[in-house]
Specification:
With 1109 residues, this protein is an all-beta fold. The chain has 9 domains: 120 residues, Immunoglobulins (Immunoglobulin-like, Sandwich); 86 residues, Immunoglobulins (Immunoglobulin-like, Sandwich), CATH 2.60.40; 70 residues, Sandwich (Immunoglobulin-like); 92 residues, Sandwich (Immunoglobulin-like), CATH 2.60.40.10; 75 residues, Immunoglobulin-like, CATH 2.60.40; 100 residues, Immunoglobulins (Immunoglobulin-like); 95 residues, Immunoglobulins (Immunoglobulin-like, Sandwich); 90 residues, Sandwich (Immunoglobulin-like), CATH 2.60.40.10; and more. The protein contains 5 helices and 84 strands. The strands form 21 sheets. Strands 50, 51, 53, 54, 55 and 56 form a 6-stranded antiparallel beta sheet that branches. Strands 2-9-8-4-5 form a 5-stranded mixed beta sheet, with no helix packed on it. Strand 36 and strand 37 form a beta hairpin. The longest helix has 7 residues. Pfam families: fn3 (PF00041), I-set (PF07679), THB (PF18362). GO terms for molecular function: actin binding; myosin heavy chain binding.
């Protein structure tokens, strides 16, 4: 088919404008459906990249959007054209500033003119939207995922907000393999959507040549004509079908794009590279068929020029130095040198290098004499030099020496100070030795400061230097030091202002510190104000943490001075701690507390107490003068009413905050004495007492009882409370119960006991015994209380645990003895544990030898009691003996046996008889719990031969082993004997045979191919594949599958070398079979012949002469 539009003439007339025009050209129109399909898009043809005619309108993607609004420039960042390879991802970003918008902007993404991409969002296309609240900028993103070749084309982004509108066009170029529109129509291929039209041209209408209509129509009508006649692909087929041009850069094949533009003018081919960069420095090749032409492109960086040079500087010693220059481009690399030596960042960070856009700065923090010299900055396009001079400073009473050297010894000159000639005197000495002129000033004074100049006689130039006078700083303050006399006292909450006079030249810097913290000159509560000659230290509203030693340091180049100022903050004390009521009475209580942790910097004068009823909100003060002690007795309270107490601390500054309230308490009187005190039990070392509650408890709760005792002959024997130290407490603390056992007493002691009830008011009057008690045991006969279950024989299985608990009584503690059949029990055999009220017999794991009679004896002096326990340990019985078949008749068998020798230490309760057919040897139970030693087994099957066995049963269970019959019982058959016929097994073996052979195939290189056949055979044959008679079973390129006799050989991405004869061989024990086929692998695309000629101009062109055109 001929070209849709004759573009060669247009390029010939205006070759310079061709690259710009070709970037916006439309796709060529396709032929009608009966014409052959166009070549793949990844091999661009000459005419596909040709420029449109001069009179043609811009391409579809280059037209402005058809909207009703006017463009207002809403975009702050527009989406840019991009390139991506097949299968790769690319993101287009658009940003809109919504600061001046009244509502959220609306954005739409289009491909071509009318295809809205919002409906295509999915696997390959994602639309995202974000909003930055700080900058008020909306960010819209269109992300193309796993790009396909048909995604390439023109796109448009439109944004609108009420009456404002903006639009932007951009291109997407996809590099790599692709197919024509008929084979692969992606989600973004609008041409594929046109194929769904159902309108068909009636056969009665005359045939129309669409190509003639497109040739006569302007380019703006191409889309309309294509839509009218159902054309879905506007690409054309070259007249020379096999004429293909490839542009290769470093082995990579490139397609036309906005950056790489291919042009065709007759037999000439041009390659234009826009925006050339360092990455374009490479070898370029043009391939036409088997012809190849190569040229090399060299790209250099533009030289970096110094726009603003360095400036000479003169600074004082210790000052900061910044040498600054400006270059022509941002991000350029520069090199700094001092006196020809390159400067680097050393360990002390003396030199720092700073970049700010096009500005480059060399920074020296503290200049010294060694930093004097010539500094140079270099780029690849220029350099700049500057000189740095560092001057020194002098202190008071130092010697200043100015020295210069001239070229001739006979040259004389004059020294000037601020333009006035300097004369020699006692302090100023002027000397001239050889070529050196020297001015010396002894004991420098402030009036010596100024500019000194040496002017040679008869010459029109001079040398200058400056003399700076420094006076060391001094702090003039009387209250310095850390002594008590120099301490500054301030009351908390008041303001402290301290004006410190300071002298020194130059004006010194002042630093206030407290510990390691520096006091700043900000607006804080503690701050410093520095003026000329004074420094004011201020504390607004002094607080406790402001107390301490403050250090002030004044410093200038001449020296420094320090002073310490001690500030003491006094305040009211902290509240007292741990207020508690230690005792209460009927109308009073005693309160104690602890002094406060912080006394406010002043001694505590005393305390003030307050009380209130628990249900009231009004506190009543108990004392108006400070009470000096920490224990106070409060009186005149109402019994039965709950009160609370709190305390204030008082010092010379004032009264503290109140303490925490004490626990609520109730003034109450003690209870009456307990009643009914008596002895409940007594032994050699302990006694048990019991009593009843007091008759009168009072309004407070009863806290407990206190039990005390004393020995006969002590002072307390008169039962008086005159010396309470003689009474010993029976327990630690109080007991809530009305009974108590006192242990650890001495046998034979004569003791008196008393009990007192305690409540909040304290102990009551004591309740005592009528007479003293002698600590001695009361005799009680021993008695064994044998449990009912142990009065019968106790039966246990072998391996069980025996734990017998037998209670007894007797006082004093009786002696317990266990024996078995007259022999005492020993620990390996059994364990015995005794207490005052019971005894335990424990056997961890019983055995047959533990069976027998166990005797228990409990004895106190000559009185004793005994009891016996029978223990029977049982086990499984042994097997029965002498099992015999006594008779066989009909379908019956008579059996007889003897009882087992070992009955398991218990009676045999029965037997279990089982039978089994000798063919299957499956045992079936005939009788269970059979008590006799003989039986008859009936209902046997004729023709079968049986064996029998018998188990013995006792209380534990079946015996472990049975007793089997030595002989078998055969049940005779009746009638004619049947002889079955002989049978010969069928041989199912079969030699391999291919039921479906391999078929010759022709495939395209790069696409997986499969060869299939089917085979049968018994047993399953072994299959081997061969290529050109070579075994390929172990090669990873081939994949061999076998399922239900169907054999498949898969060749992964075959190349031209994979063609040949493939053979499949099946072998088993019965034989073998072979089948083969021929596989042909074809190229992906046909090849052509090309010749390249390259020339170099301002823009780069590749001139291609095609011999086939």
């Amino acid at each position: 088919m001929p070209e849709p539009v004759k573009k060669a003439e247009a390029l010939a007339e205006a070759p310079a404008e061709a690259p710009a025009e070709s970037a916006a050209e439309p796709q060529p129109a396709p032929a009608p459906e009966q014409t052959p399909a166009p070549p793949p898009a990844e091999t661009p043809t000459v005419d596909q990249t040709a420029a449109p005619p001069p009179d043609a309108p811009p391409a579809e993607d280059g037209q402005p959007p058809d909207t009703r609004q006017d463009l207002t420039g809403l975009f702050t960042e527009r989406p840019q054209s991009g390139e991506v390879t097949v299968g790769g991802n690319i993101t287009f970003v658009a940003k809109v500033n919504a600061e001046s918008l009244l509502k959220k902007p609306t954005i739409k993404w289009f491909k071509g003119k009318w295809m809205d991409l919002a409906s295509k969002s999915g696997k390959h296309l994602q639309l995202k939207e974000t909003y930055d609240r700080n900058s008020k900028v909306y960010t819209f993103e269109m992300q193309v995922i796993a790009a396909k070749a048909n995604f390439a084309g023109g796109y448009r982004c439109e944004v609108s907000s009420r009456d404002k509108f903006d639009s932007c066009n951009f291109e997407l170029t996809v590099h790599g393999d692709s197919t024509d529109g008929k084979e692969d129509s992606g989600e973004l291929d609008f041409s594929a959507l046109l194929k769904k039209r159902t309108v068909q041209v009636s056969s009665s209408e005359p045939d129309v040549d669409v190509w003639d209509i497109l040739s006569a129509a302007p380019a703006s009508e191409y889309q309309k004509i294509a839509f009218q006649y159902g054309i879905t692909d506007l690409r054309g087929i070259l007249h020379e079908r096999y004429c293909h041009i490839y542009i290769i850069k470093n082995i990579k094949c490139y397609r036309p794009s906005s950056r790489y533009i291919f042009e065709s003018v007759g037999n000439m081919r041009y390659l234009t590279i826009n925006h050339c960069s360092l990455s374009d420095d490479a070898a370029y090749s043009c391939v036409v068929g088997e012809e190849k032409c190569t040229t090399e492109l060299f790209v250099k960086e533009p030289p970096i020029q110094i726009v603003k040079n360095l400036e000479d500087q003169m600074v004082m010693k210790g000052e900061r130095v910044e040498l600054e220059c400006e270059v022509s481009e941002e991000g350029a690399n520069v090199k700094w040198e001092k006196d020809g030596v390159e400067l680097t960042r050393d360990e002390s960070f003396k030199y720092r290098f700073k970049k700010d856009g096009c500005k480059h700065v060399l920074i020296i923090n503290e200049a010294t004499k060694e930093d004097c010299g010539h500094y140079k900055v270099k780029t690849n396009g220029g350099e700049s030099v500057a000189e740095l001079l560092v001057q020194g400073e002098l202190k008071a009473k130092d010697q200043a020496v100015f020295k210069c050297e001239v070229s001739d010894e006979n040259v004389r000159g004059t020294w000037y100070k601020n333009g006035v000639e300097v004369k020699s005197d006692t302090r100023i000495n002027i000397t001239h030795i050889g070529r050196i002129h020297k001015l010396t000033i002894d004991e420098v004074k402030p009036e010596d400061e100024g500019d000194y100049t040496f002017v040679p006689d008869g010459h029109a130039f001079n040398l200058s230097a400056k003399l700076n006078f420094l006076d060391p700083p001094k702090i003039h303050l009387d209250c310095m030091g850390r002594t008590a006399e120099s301490t500054i006292v301030v009351v908390a909450g008041n303001k402290l202002r301290l004006d410190v006079p300071i002298t020194g030249d130059p004006a010194p810097t002042v630093i206030w510190t407290k510990g390691e913290k520096v006091v700043t000159e900000g607006d804080g509560r503690v701050h410093v104000e520095t003026t000329k000659g004074h420094c004011v230290f201020t504390i607004e509203g002094a607080e406790r943490q402001d107390e301490g030693v403050y250090s002030v340091v004044v410093r200038n180049p001449a020296g420094e001075d320090t002073a310490d100022i001690n500030v003491k903050v006094v305040d009211v004390p902290d509240p007292p701690l741990a207020v508690r009521v230690v005792s209460v009475g009927e109308e009073s209580c005693i309160v104690q507390w602890d002094p406060p942790l912080y006394d406010g910097g002043q001694p505590i004068i005393g305390y003030v107490l307050e009380r209130k009823k628990k249900k009231s909100y009004r506190w009543m003060r108990l004392n108006f003068d400070p009470y000096p002690e920490t224990t106070y007795e409060a009186k005149r309270m109402i019994e039965g009413v709950a009160y609370e107490m709190r305390v204030y601390a008082v010092n010379g500054i004032g009264m503290s905050r109140h303490s925490l309230s004490s626990h609520p308490f109730v003034p109450v009187a003690p209870t009456s004495e307990p009643i009914g005190l008596c002895v409940d039990d007594i032994s050699d070392t302990c006694i048990s007492l019991k009593w009843r509650r007091p008759e009168r408890i009072g309004s407070a709760e009863l806290e407990g009882y206190g039990v005390e005792y004393c020995k006969e002959g002590s002072k307390c024997w008169s039962l008086s409370d005159s010396d309470p130290d003689e009474w010993l407490p029976a327990t630690e603390g109080l007991t809530d119960r009305t009974a108590l056992t006192i242990r650890g007493l001495t046998t034979g002691d004569k003791l008196q006991f008393r009990v007192r009830a305690h409540n909040m008011a304290g102990p009551s009057a004591p309740a005592t015994l009528a007479q003293p008690v002698t600590i001695r045991e009361i005799m009680q006969r021993p008695k064994i209380w044998l449990p009912r279950n142990l009065r019968q024989t106790l039966i246990r299985k072998v391996g069980d645990t025996v734990n017998l608990v037998i209670p007894f009584q007797g006082k004093p503690r009786p002696q317990v003895t266990w024996s078995k059949e007259g022999e005492p029990l020993k620990p390996p055999f059994a364990s015995v544990r005794n207490s005052e009220v019971d005894t335990i017999l424990f056997i961890r794991k019983t055995d047959r030898q533990h069976s027998g009679k166990y005797d228990l004896q409990v004895q106190i002096e000559n009185v004793e009691d005994t009891a016996s326990v029978m223990l029977q340990v049982v086990d499984l019985p042994g097997p029965p003996e002498a099992l015999k078949i006594m008779d066989v008749w009909g379908f019956n068998v008579a059996l007889e046996w003897k009882p087992p020798k070992d009955n398991g230490n218990c009676e045999i309760s029965g037997y279990t008889i089982q039978k089994a057919d000798k063919k299957t040897m499956e045992w079936f139970t005939v009788y269970e719990q059979y008590r006799r030693t003989n039986c008859v087994v009936s209902d046997l099957i004729m023709g079968n031969e049986y064996v029998f066995r018998v188990y013995a049963i006792n209380l534990v269970g079946l015996s472990q082993d049975p007793c089997n019959t030595k002989d078998s019982a055969y049940i005779q058959k009746t009638g004619i004997a049947y002889k079955p016929p002989s049978h010969k097994d069928h041989d199912f073996s079969e030699a391999p045979k291919f039921t479906h052979p391999l078929v010759n195939r022709s495939v395209i290189a790069g696409y997986n191919a499969t060869l299939s056949c089917s085979v049968r055979g018994i047993p399953k044959p072994k299959v081997t594949w061969y290529k050109n008679k070579m075994d390929i079973s172990n090669e990873a390129k081939y994949r061999m599958l076998s399922k239900q006799g169907v054999l498949t050989l898969e060749i992964r991405k075959p190349c031209l070398f994979d063609g040949g004869v493939y053979t499949c061989k099946a072998v088993n024990a019965s034989g073998e079979d072979i089948v083969e086929c021929k596989l042909e692998v074809r190229r992906k695309y046909p090849a052509g012949r090309w010749v390249f000629i390259l020339r170099k101009k301002m823009r780069i062109y590749l001139n291609i002469i095609s011999e086939s055109l």
